[in-house]
């Protein structure tokens, strides 16, 4: 029997738009997911730059000049903050998603998080050395 034949009304749980603001865990989750919007837009900006690079020196220089506007600089500052927050929260989640055992014992969360920060610092330093 389907709902059109039934006399009963189905239960529809009311869900308010601000449900995620009532719990700190959900608020953090939604903010972390929201930062991915800035990460995605930044990826598009970089791909646009690659497209301009393929089109030649003049097109690439025009793209570089467009990045020097105050709006572009403000976006890059916001995107950097969003990326750092996103990375910090994912580093904190990694030990929960990737449970590593040493024999029968579970490796504590703190060393896993520290190794990620060290790896981030090493990779960032290598990129700076290569670019400079």
Automatic annotation (TrEMBL):
Query: Would I find Membrane among this entry's keywords?
Result: yes
Q: Which UniProt keywords are given for this protein, alphabetically ordered? A: Cell membrane, Membrane, Transmembrane, Transmembrane helix
Q: What is the membrane topology noted in the UniProt record heading this document?
A: Multi-pass membrane protein
Q: Which GO terms describe its molecular function?
A: succinate dehydrogenase activity
InterPro entries from the UniProt entry: Fumarate_red_C, SQR/QFR_C/D
| Listed transmembrane segments | 29-51, 71-91, 112-131
Record's subcellular location: Cell membrane
The superkingdom listed in its UniProt entry is Bacteria
Q: What HAMAP family does the annotation carry?
A: Fumarate_red_C
Family named by the database record: Belongs to the FrdC family.
Subunit structure, as described in the record: Part of an enzyme complex containing four subunits: a flavoprotein (FrdA), an iron-sulfur protein (FrdB), and two hydrophobic anchor proteins (FrdC and FrdD).
| Protein name, entry field | Fumarate reductase subunit C
């Amino acid at each position: 029997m389907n709902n059109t034949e039934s006399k009963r009304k189905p239960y529809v749980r009311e869900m308010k738009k601000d449900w995620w603001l009532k719990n700190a865990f959900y608020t953090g989750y939604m903010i972390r997911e929201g930062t991915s919007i800035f990460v995605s837009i930044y990826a598009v900006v970089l791909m646009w730059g690659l497209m301009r690079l393929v089109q030649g020196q003049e097109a690439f220089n025009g793209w570089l000049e467009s990045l020097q506007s105050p709006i572009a600089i403000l976006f890059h500052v916001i995107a950097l903050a969003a990326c750092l927050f996103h990375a910090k929260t994912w580093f904190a989640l990694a030990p929960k998603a990737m449970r590593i055992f040493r024999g029968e014992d579970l490796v504590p969360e703190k060393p896993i998080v520290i190794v990620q920060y060290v790896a981030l610092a090493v990779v960032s330093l290598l990129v700076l050395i290569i670019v400079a």
